[in-house]
Amino acid sequence: MYYNTSNSACSSKWKYYNTSNSTCGRPYQHVGASSPTKRCRVSNRIGCKVRISFNFCGRRGYSIFGFEERHNHPMSSDLVKPILKVNRSLDIGHQKFILNCAKANISTMKCYKLFKDSVRGYSNIGAMSVDFKIFKKDLKTYIAGVDAQMRMTSD
Questions:
Q1: pTM (2 d.p.)
Q2: Domain of life here (predicted)?
Q3: pLDDT one-digit tens code per residue, 117-149
Q4: How many helices (H) and strands (E) does the chain have?
Q5: Average per-residue pLDDT in the chain?
Q6: Distances from the Cα of 39 to the Cαs of 17, 43, 45, in angstroms?
Q7: Measured between alpha carbons, how far is 122 from 131 in angstroms, rounded to an integer?
Q8: CA-to-CA distance for 112 and 123, rounded, in angstroms?
Q9: In whole angstroms, what separates CA 37 from the centre of its chain?
Q10: Are the CB atoms for 40 and 24 separated by under 8 Å?
Q11: Taking the domains of the chain in order of start, what are their residue ranges?
């Protein structure tokens, strides 16, 4: 919901208050249409009680006032685990396929879709399209305009 916060009707200063239960319910400040929105963290939305609080003790510095370390939720669900950067990697088979597609002048997205068809599904790829794009960009910078024949080795 947008509310006009000024007294005059001609002002363009508005505040956005999100009142739905899916977010933290904190007010979001908008000045004009181009200012970015402040996003809530997932841990706040699901009611995670992990907190750390500090007290300022003058010259001694800070002391820990409160500390709750137990999470009441899993760190990542089973649906998002394949998407995490830790679980994605391009092995030598991926790299050879991308290299062959680059030699045949096939774009990275088309290469990704062809690889998806060859392994029968997105869940079996083991990488994202962004990983394919980054590897092809790195390959182009490695070649750097030199007209040479390259061979991939399994180091």
A1: 0.48
A2: Eukaryota
A3: 999 988 888 888 899 999 999 888 887 766 555
A4: 4, 5
A5: 72
A6: 13, 12, 11
A7: 13
A8: 12
A9: 17
A10: yes
A11: 1-40, 42-73, 81-143
